[in-house]
Design a protein that fits this description.
The protein is an all-alpha fold. It has helices at residues 7-10, 12-28, 39-73, 82-105, 107-117, 138-146, 151-166, 178-183, 187-193, 211-215, 239-256, 260-268.
Length: 280
C-alpha cells in the first residue's frame, strides 16, 4: 500500500491476464507431468481470493492501527531514501520468513495458512487461494515499525513481496539460471514448499529470497515429483469449509483432550501433534 493505494488490488487485471496465458499454454502445450487446471479447484481458489480481499478490509484496519501505533512510539525515524527501501525490502522478507515458518509450526496459525496449501493443483490461481483470517501475521512486521520505518513503506513493501510470489506458483517454469536459484525464491523452490512429500514438508519458507532458508536449514531443492496438497487432503470445494476446516478440527481436538496441557498442545504445538499414547 502506497499512501492508501493497495498494489495487490491494482494488480488484479494482471493476475487475470497471466492466468489466462498460463491456461492457454497448458491447453496447447500440455505436459503429462503437470497437474494443470481443474474447473472446481480454480473456482475455489478464486473464491478464496475474493473472500480474502473482503475479509482483509476488517483485518487490515487492525494491522494498520497496530503498525501505525508501534511506529508512533518508536524513538527512531527512517526516511524514504533508496537505501531505506532496499534495506526494508530485505528486512521485510526476513520477517516474512519467520512468520511463514511459524505458520507451519504453530497449529492455530496453521489453521489460517492451511488454506493456501489445500489445493492439489499448482498454478497461478493457487497463488490467490488466501486465508480469510490473516490477522495473526501482524505481530511479525511490528519490529519494522519499531525500528522506525513508516507504515506506508511497510505496507508498500508487503504488497511488493506478495506480488513477487504470484509468478512462482506455476509448473510451467522449470529450474532457472543457477545464480537466481541460489539467491531468489523460484517456481522450483516454491513447488517444494507446496509438496506433501515427506521430504518436502516444512521447507522453503522464503517469500522473495531463498537465502534465509539456506541460512536456517529449511531449504530443500526440488528432486522427486511434487505431490501437491496436504498430508490429509480435504474433500471439499466449498470456500467456507476450506476457510475454517482446521479451526473446526482444533475445536474437536481441544474438546476431546483430557487435560489443560493437552488442550494447549492442540492449539500451540505443530500440526499433527497429539499427546503421547493418543491415536493419530
Amino acid at each position: 500500500m502506497i499512501h492508501g493505494i493497495d498494489l495487490t488490488t491494482l494488480a488484479i487485471p494482471f493476475y487475470i491476464l497471466f492466468m489466462a496465458l498460463e491456461l492457454l499454454s497448458v491447453r496447447f502445450f500440455p505436459d503429462p507431468t503437470e497437474q494443470g487446471y481443474a474447473a472446481k479447484d480454480t473456482a475455489t481458489s478464486l473464491s478464496m481470493g475474493i473472500g480474502s480481499i473482503i475479509c482483509n478490509l476488517g483485518w487490515g484496519l487492525v494491522t494498520v492501527a497496530a503498525v501505525a501505533g508501534t511506529h508512533a512510539i518508536s524513538p527512531w525515524r527512517i526516511g524514504s531514501s533508496a537505501a531505506s527501501w532496499i534495506v526494508l525490502f530485505v528486512a521485510y522478507d526476513f520477517c516474512y520468513y519467520w512468520e511463514h515458518r511459524a505458520n507451519h509450526r504453530v497449529r492455530i496459525l496453521w489453521a489460517s495458512h492451511v488454506v493456501h496449501h489445500s489445493s492439489q493443483h499448482y498454478n497461478l490461481s493457487t497463488a490467490l487461494r488466501q486465508t480469510w483470517t490473516g490477522v495473526g501475521s501482524t505481530v511479525f512486521i511490528l519490529p519494522l515499525a519499531l525500528a522506525g520505518f513508516p507504515a506506508y513503506m511497510i505496507f508498500a513493501t508487503g504488497s511488493m513481496n506478495l506480488l513477487y510470489q504470484f509468478w512462482i506458483h506455476t509448473e510451467r517454469i522449470g529450474k532457472m539460471w543457477r545464480p537466481i536459484e541460489l539467491v531468489m525464491n523460484t517456481p522450483s523452490h516454491h513447488r517444494v514448499h507446496h509438496g506433501s512429500n515427506q521430504g518436502y514438508l516444512d521447507k522453503n519458507y522464503g517469500g522473495v529470497f531463498i537465502v534465509f532458508d539456506r541460512a536456517f536449514r529449511s531449504f530443500e531443492p526440488e528432486g522427486e515429483p511434487v505431490k501437491y496438497g496436504l498430508t490429509k487432503n480435504i474433500s471439499t470445494y466449498n470456500p467456507f469449509r476450506v476457510a475454517v476446516h482446521e479451526y473446526a478440527a482444533i475445536a474437536r481436538d481441544v474438546r476431546a483432550a483430557t487435560s489443560w496441557r493437552d488442550k494447549a498442545g492442540y492449539v500451540l504445538r505443530g500440526p499433527g501433534w497429539a499427546p503421547r499414547g493418543a491415536n493419530a
